[in-house]
Amino acid sequence: MPRFLTLIRIDEKNVPAEGPSPELMERMGKLLEEITKAGVMLDTAGLTPTSDGSRVTWEGGQLSVTDGPFTESKEVIGGYSISQCKDKAEAIEWTKRFLSLHEDYWTITAEVRQIAED
Known about the structure:
Elements: E1 3-10, H1 22-37, E2 41-46, E3 54-59, E4 62-67, E5 76-84, H2 88-100, E6 108-114
Antiparallel strand pairs: 1-5, 1-6, 2-5, 3-4
InterPro entries: Dimeric_a/b-barrel, YCII
Organism: Streptomyces luteogriseus
Protein name: YCII-related domain-containing protein
């Protein structure tokens, strides 16, 4: 059964300073429990702000390291999940359910990609 990586992209400038609401966390917990019991969810996590991150670049035969925040990026990866679904359509359906849990003021984009195997 194929595995899918879903990258959650957010605009860090429009994320509530206090983080997700308790109601959102409760809805998210219920969905994660359902998706885990269905045997679909393999792993998921949110990521710390880009101010805590670093980018390592290989260019022209040289390595460089740049510490965050990455102000040139409007959207950053705020979280990810790895799921095992029968096909891409199922992975997208689970992703739609996850995004729909959020309040209207959130702007989130999810990129669903199948993990290449063999």
